[in-house]
Design brief:
Blueprint (H helix, E strand, L loop, with lengths): L4 H15 L1 H21 L1
Length: 42
């Protein structure tokens, strides 16, 4: 059972990411918008 706890942790992390996907998407969208605004002002 205790062969690969890191893999189990990875799967839990993946589930967490999938559960909070909308938060991540909105955050990255804001980041991309900021980058775009900076690039346009140059």
């Amino acid at each position: 059972m205790s062969e690969c706890p890191a893999q189990w942790y990875h799967y839990v992390n993946l589930l967490f990411l999938i559960r909070h996907n909308d938060v991540i998407i909105s955050f990255s969208l804001r980041f991309v918008k900021d980058m775009f605004r900076q690039g346009a002002s140059e």
